[in-house]
Write a structure and sequence with these properties.
The protein has 264 residues and is of the alpha/beta class. Helices cover 34% and strands 18% of the residues. The protein folds into 2 domains: 171 residues, Rossmann fold, CATH 3.40.50.1220; 82 residues, SIR2/SIRT2 'Small Domain', CATH 3.30.1600. The strands form 2 sheets. It has a 7-stranded parallel beta sheet, sandwiched between helices. The structure holds ligand BV8. The site of ligand BV8 has 36 residues, from helix 2, strand 9 and helix 10.
């Protein structure tokens, strides 16, 4: 498909959940699709987005203040409890139609890649098999000292629990601000963003790097940039298509429009 400058098409709330015909056409002709998701795709599952106003005990903190190694060193119990509350919430929710639509797209598109900034594991629970978790997963923990991951741990003693190997404090297996992203996941996401024909930025405020840089890499490599978000973001003015509304409504419609026989 020609990659010349395309006039940006905005589909807003007022237009209902219509998928632009030009985008359907591009997706029918494209093979390589790259998707980056953020907290917005889990919002319709009932998971508060990362920058939703913090509630309860956490109301007085900004997430960026809690999601750091310094915060954990300063008050390990507070940070441990914040993640424990989020983990408990995630255990109670289910993937939504947006997650299932992406799991279907993985099977339908010849060369499909999904990277997420989310730490809730909902893409995998919806059936997505190849997910690059750029910011880790809060359902796993690791040792703050020796970095060893744990799938199971004991919370009967003082919290945070201690590492059975070295006695260090256990922490959520997520990437905090100022920490490097998992090298292999980031490299793979960067390579897919360079090669893709269509890049979807879905449910992210496009402010946290290096994840947010993937959309720019794709755009600079000539990809069609599609943003799905309930609000505009710093990325919107570069998008070729902006679908303004809930991902859980737009994504199933988009899959049905491009692959009419899809079972989702
Ligand atoms: C690093 C895990 C190198 C923990 C997270 C200036 C330029 C470039 C970089 C930096 C810079 N200044 C500082 C940095 C570095 C920093 C950064 O980017 N800071 C930002 C704030 C500027 N980045 C880092 O520190 C990264 N590491 O750079 O390492 C390094 C290494 C060693 C030493 C020094 C440096 C690490 C970043 C990872 C941090 N960890 N999460 C946890 O979750 O607790 S980030 C956190 O933000 C979450 O992962 C979240 O996913 C991510 C992004 O947020 P979003 O997902 O976009 O969520 P948000 O709430 O913001 O937005 C939701 C969106 O959804 C909204 O737009 C909303 O409109 C939309 N929405 C809502 N409902 C719906 C919807 N859309 C569709 N449908 C709906 N229904």
């Amino acid at each position: 498909m020609g990659r010349g400058k395309r006039k940006r098409q905005i589909v807003g709330h007022g237009d209902g959940v219509n998928i632009p015909a030009a985008l359907v056409e591009i997706l029918r002709w494209s093979e390589r699709i790259m998707v980056l998701t953020g907290a917005g795709i889990s919002a319709e599952s009932g998971v508060p987005t990362f920058r939703d106003a913090q509630t309860g005990l956490w109301a007085r903190f900004k997430p960026e203040e809690l999601a750091t190694p310094e915060a954990f060193r300063l008050n390990p119990r507070l940070v441990w409890d914040w993640y424990a509350e989020r983990r408990a919430k995630v255990r109670l929710v289910a993937p939504n139609p947006g997650h299932y639509a992406l799991a279907a797209m993985e099977k339908l598109a010849p060369d499909f890649h999904l990277a997420t900034q989310n730490v809730d594991g909902l893409h995998q629970r919806a059936g997505s098999r190849r997910v690059w978790e750029l910011h880790g997963n809060l359902t796993r923990v690791k040792c703050f000292e020796d970095d060893g991951p744990f799938e199971n741990w004991n919370e009967t003693g003082p919290l945070p629990p201690r590492c059975p190997r070295c006695g260090g404090a256990l922490r959520p297996d997520v990437v905090w601000f100022g920490e490097s992203l998992p090298e292999s996941a980031l490299r793979a996401a960067e390579a897919a963003s360079q090669k893709c024909e269509v890049f979807f930025s879905i449910g992210t405020s496009a402010m946290v790097y290096p994840a947010a840089g993937l959309a720019h890499t794709a755009k600079e490599s000539g990809a069609t940039l599609v943003e799905i978000n309930t609000q505009e973001t710093p990325l919107t003015r570069q998008a070729d298509f902006f679908l303004g509304g809930p991902a859980g409504q737009f994504l199933p419609e988009l899959v049905r429009a491009v692959w009419p026989k899809a079972q989702i």
